[in-house]
Amino acid sequence: QVLVVGCGNSELSEQMYDMGVCEDIVNIDISDAVIRQMQERSGSKRPKMSYLLMDMLQMDFSDAHFQVVLDKGTLDAILTDEEEATLAKVDKMFAEISRVLQVGGRYLCVSLAQAHVLKKAVEYFCKEGWVVRVHQVASSGDKQQFVLPVFVYVMTKFRKIPGSAPQILEICPEEQDKPMRVESAERLVAAVKDRQHYALLCSQLSKTPCGEQVSLDLCDRESGRPRYTLHVVDSPSVKPSRDNHFAIFIIPQGRETEWLFGTEEGRRQLATSAGFRRLVTVALHREQHYEGMAGIQAELSGKVMELAPPGLPARQQVPFLSVGGDIGVRTVRHCDTSPLSGEYVVEDVKGDGTCYFRRLIFLRNRNVVQSEARLLASVPLPGQKKRRKDKKPSLTEPPATIDRSYLCCEHHKAMVAGLCLLGGPDPLPGAPLAVRVVGLGGGSLPLFVHDYFSQAHVAVVEIDPSMLEVATRWFGFSQGDRMRVHVSDGLDYVAKLAAEAPAQYDAVMFDVDSKDLTVGMSCPPPAFVEKPFLRKVKTILKPEGVFVLNLVCRDARLKESVLATLREVFPLLYTRRIEGEVNEILFCQPSPEGQRDPTELRARAWALEEALRQPGHPWDSSYVLADMLQAVKIL
């Protein structure tokens, strides 16, 4: 027995009757004209179906009379606002529906699921102890009538249990049969909102090229965690042809942070080079498992076609592209959580060609490589035979062999290049140096200075003890006579040095990230570039020393303020911009006597380069410090 509330002149009941879904259908409406029209239209053709003039807020039916109450758009029509009178009317409607439904019966509500409508329905029936499920039954597209998707709320009546019974909330998207549990009414409303935004996005993308790049996450059905991150890139400058409308590019695992794949400008260049008017780049997430390129293609084919550009010919083959035709290699070596740095992961990835790299990633900022080191060829590489799952690595086992001669990060190369600014008659690699590094990470920067400047004494300050353990266990870092790590707040430690032991360091290097992602500067934390603290940094430097700062600041106004403060404290300020990155390396000297003209800087850079090529110093041939310092400009 089915009750249709607010039936209007819809054909839904007639279609259900004619298709044999059910015949015992009672339709009610408050419009006398509508009821008469529908009675005449059905008449003797549907003898078991009735149309009654009745107000659903005050129905004449006995309690528990129906197994189903069906509502197609009536709730949407009534709940047009959140005024007190409107909400009271909806409460009365729900109470009457509840009264006439049997236990185990269902209230089916067809709706466009505006946020306030869905929220009201979910909260009311959850409070009554009903099971709440939301089905997406139609999405946007050329074959659909509406741009917005259509939903059906399925509210199943249970006997109300005294006390607090657990809520059962589920959503069942259009593309899958199995419903997914959600933990709260807020999360259910948010999940519906995501699908509405996606439908609007698809509708827009199907009609016009997108001026700005669009990004979205496709999530795993079981866990709800992101599985693919897609960027839609349009290239109007590419001349149209039959076969270049649309393509999908799978970014190899571990390479999503590279400039070509991880920046808007890089993706635009990739799309233009590939020669397609619309390219969708697909990044794979480290928490997920993938069954090769064919598996990804089968999984994504239906979904990516919803992002197709206007004018795509019917039955057009859409190519899936990648680098070298595979999806890359990523092996997670270690996961943990630090009280200071949050969740982090150590992973081995295959780079371009045959090189493999080890990376440290803070998951709060998962698209940024915190530290990176190249693995030597003798290391058991990702993709080879894995350790048995039940055999955990010993805490004392040696780390995989790290290539300590290689600096992966361009900003580390530039920071080392800044040592050319140091005075003194001795060639730098053999000169006695006192170096203070604030920020350990994987330890690549202090290790390199220690290994290739044979008389350098390096002291590192790191606030997070977890990072010392990670650097030691996974990145080949070790302490010794010329390398010490102090676990302390860099601010406090520098202040203590300034008070107790001024003018003792040839170089002070800051490579410390900010834990506060709300600030437009991710390196260093703002407190490290305030004038009183910078004065303390100047105090611990020797007069001919150099302060090297890795600055990562996307806020132009904030960056200008930082530079102005540095100028006030340090008479000499050089800057080195890292091509394709936000990083900018600043070289600050406490004495104007240290200024050198560009010719002298290049000569010192070449001298350092040649010295580091001597036996015992296998300096990588790509490190041409002179070329790096040619780009240095005096502010």
UniProtKB/TrEMBL annotation:
Keywords: Methyltransferase, Multifunctional enzyme, Transferase. The keyword Transferase applies. CDD domains: AdoMet_MTases. It comes from the Eukaryota. The keyword Methyltransferase applies. One of its GO terms (biological process) is methylation. GO terms for molecular function: methyltransferase activity. Residues 2-123 form the Methyltransferase domain. Belongs to the methyltransferase superfamily. This is eEF1A lysine and N-terminal methyltransferase.
